[in-house]
Amino acid sequence: MKIIVVGTGFVGLPHAAVLSEYGHEVYAYDIDEQRINAYKSGKREEIERYVNEPGLAASVAESIGSYLFFTTDITDVVDGTDIVFLCLNTPPKRDGSSDLSYYLNATHHLAKLLAKRENKKRVVLVNKSTVPVGTARLLENIMNEHGVENFGVASNPEFLAQGNAIVGSRRPDRVAIGADNEEDFEILRRVYSQFVNHVRIRYLETTPETAEAIKYMANTLLLTYISFWNGVGGRLAESFSNIRMEDLKIGVTSDDRISTWGSYVSNGAGGSCFGKDIQSLIYQLNNSGRPTDLLQAVYNINEYQKTYLIDRAVYEAGFNFNQKTVALLGLAFKKRTNDMRDSAALKVVESLLARGVKAIRAYDPLAMDDAQNIWFSPEKNHLFDRISYYPSAREAIAGSDALYISTDWEEFRGLAHTIETTVKPPYLVIDGRRMIPDFRALVSKDYEYLPVGGTLLTPKDSARKNTKGQVSDDLSSEVGTIK
Ligand code: UGA
Fold it and tell me: Which residue's alpha carbon is at the smallest distance from atom 24 of ligand 1?
């Protein structure tokens, strides 16, 4: 089939690449010339400058020039096209609603081109990136407004998580298609023939509005799981020292009805989707006059979680950040990405600077370039001058008074040894990801340890343990939990 993919970011490029693997003739279109040139080069490092996904560059290199074509102009391509996938970004506006300006620019441009087609065969226009409920209908109106003939609209939301785009596109859990008539469903079945009647992949055909709602429900439910664990499980284990967080997880999620995903307590979920989508859903429901208390609570708990440990350091550990130097390990919103959108580290830095820290010594295996040049550019705020960047965790920790772990990079699991051999107590370790399995050894050597989903552990506890044996249960229980 002849396919155009409009927008070649995280959603569009992997989608175009995987479609071309199945022998479709795919035109990946973007208005960003530099981006398209980078993709056209077929070089891994060029492609990964824009979308860094395992297996993506290899997939592009395999199909480029035979099934996959990159372009900044689709004027000559629209004729005879069967399907157009719209993969435009819809960033959040201040009021929580989705900014549809990129989407509207692209669809009006497309409509003008489609209206002039010579070949009037049926074309289906499919919303692939997350757009508010009702956007397929809006798309239909835009096409009608420009006099486009013989077209259908559909919604086919993307459910991929970052870092898993290629594997996930080849083998999704489900494909949800929302369309209005059999003719359009049939065209989509031909595009996705490898998934139709697949024994393990749910291929769902429904209305466009249902498909749009499925995506919002899925993402906000996932965030609800995380907020439930952070806001209830975490609070319990932070209140009662003999609760073992990881045992709590196993015990609760052993029930088949309860998801294990989301039970990993953290200093808040970030990324470009959860926060944006829940705010957009709140906006959409409020617009219909519906109450949104649950969604609002989920969102608030997640945002609060991002700086909660800094507050705990002040109120529970009595740590005064004023004029202190803090090592910050992890800037990306999760491991294996350089993406810092909505990352907890953004809020952590904001809070540390507001509390008057003298310096922040940062390290992240992938995100430091973006941090320096985009997120914490001193041109944005002179206080960002206080952040310096180091090539390793050890160098970031050297000379600091406290450490904050913000991202779950695997290499941070070995930090106890690095801390012991780099800085002397008194020293506070704030662990936003429960990354240090051997924290008991640290506390016994007079370091203080403050984890998410656990009580503050101080050398005093350790001393008590040694003299009276009172705290041993607390500590060993915690050790037993983090594996
Ligand atoms: C998310 C969804 O998982 C995808 O299904 C969805 O398609 C995608 O958004 C989207 O709408 O495009 P992603 O943003 O890549 O994917 O990230 P996740 O892996 O879901 O992680 C989100 C955040 O939650 C991260 O900060 C992660 O560290 C955190 N998290 C995850 C927790 O704090 N605890 C957990 O148990 C799981």
Answer: 269
CA of 271 to the centre of ligand 1 (A): 7
Tell me the pLDDT of the chain (483 aa) as tens digits: 999 999 999 999 999 999 999 999 999 999 999 999 999 999 999 999 999 999 999 999 999 999 999 999 999 999 999 999 999 999 999 999 999 999 999 999 999 999 999 999 999 999 999 999 999 999 999 999 999 999 999 999 999 999 999 999 999 999 999 999 999 999 999 999 999 999 999 999 999 999 999 999 999 999 999 999 999 999 999 999 999 999 999 999 999 999 999 999 999 999 999 999 999 999 999 999 999 999 999 999 999 999 999 999 999 999 999 999 999 999 999 999 999 999 999 999 999 999 999 999 999 999 999 999 999 999 999 999 999 999 999 999 999 999 999 999 999 999 999 999 999 999 999 999 999 999 999 999 999 999 999 999 998 766 554 443 333 333 333 333 222
Torsion angle defined by CA atoms of residues 299, 305, 310 and 316, in that order, rounded to the nearest 10 degrees: 120
Q: Which atom of ligand 1 is nearest to the CA of 267?
A: 33
Active-site residue numbers?
Answer: 273
Q: 141-150: string of b/e by CB count within 10 Å (b at 16+)? A: ebbeebebee
Task: Measure the CA–CA gap between 340 and 338, rounded to whole angstroms.
Answer: 6
Which residues have CB under 6 Å of ligand 1?
130, 158-162, 219, 222, 226, 261-264, 266, 269-271, 273-274, 333-334, 408
Phi, psi of 154 (to 5 degrees): -150, 160
Find the farthest-apart pair of alpha carbons in the chain and give their distance in angstroms, rounded: 88
- Three-state DSSP at 66 gives coil
Measured from the Cα of 263, ligand 1's closest atom is: 36
Nearest CA to ligand 1 atom 4: 161
Look at residues 88, 78, 81, 74 and name the one whose alpha carbon lies nearest to residue 8.
Answer: 88
Predicted model pTM: 0.93
Return the structure tokens found at 322.
């004023």
Q: Which atom of ligand 1 is nearest to the CA of 342?
A: 26
